[in-house]
Amino acid sequence: MSTTMASGISDEDILDRLRQVLHNTFEIEPSRVTPDAHLFTDLELDSIDAVDLAIQVQDMTGTRIKPEDFKSVRTVSDVVATVKALLDR
Prior knowledge:
Elements: H1 11-26, H2 47-61, H3 67-71, H4 76-87
Helix pairs in contact: 1-2, 1-4
């Protein structure tokens, strides 16, 4: 079974997957992972965690992420939008 996501997936499906990733990788309670949650202030990720998250997103999408694709990511909804954009390429 492939762990990468298919294009045409809903934002809610991406959010659910992101909740799993953040919980498994950073032990963040899934209920805290809301679209408007800020990665650094609300979820308390640091710059090293952001790199780990980018790698997880890369694994989710099966697509290489350029640093500029992830540079403006600040909230969970930014991550969802980035995943969606990567899947739609």
